[in-house]
Write a structure and sequence with these properties.
It comes from Leucobacter luti. By secondary structure, the protein is of the alpha/beta class. The protein is built from six helices and six strands. Helix 2 runs parallel beside helix 6.
Length: 173
Amino acid sequence: MTENARPIIYLDFDGVLNAISTGVTQLPRITGFGGYRRVKVSSYTVTWSREVLDRLRLLQDIADIHWLSTWRADTAIIERELPVKLDGWFDFQNDDLSHSGKLEALLIDQAEAPRPFIWVDDEEHSYYRAAHRDGLLPELAEHLLIEPSTFAGLSVGNFELMEDFLSRHSGAQ
């Protein structure tokens, strides 16, 4: 791993920034964030909070943040419709219908440029944990898995964990 390598956050969209919830009024109590609104993005209704996006932008001062989402190149649509602009996105192939292929994309990126990372995804970590348990993963840089509630998305507690991790791994940036 490169000394003082800038950490990276691999970020999903649905269930992370997009709260898959029908009860928008309940989200502030669950997440600690307010200001939720619904908008149409392409043909989908997206529920998001400006407070969540503002907190995410603060992390860009100390980490690179890349989309790792099945929206793939369509993350450009998200960035046009919501006030969010990340550092890029990962394209990945998936021929295995048992999972999305996100883990493989993360492993390829880490093999090319190992550095501390946070993976934020509401549903992919069970596949990661099984592969890790079974010894199927290479040794990885220090990392943190954040698994928000699919229905609520990121919470204040999730951000506190990420901020603590990044404060220990961001070097003298």
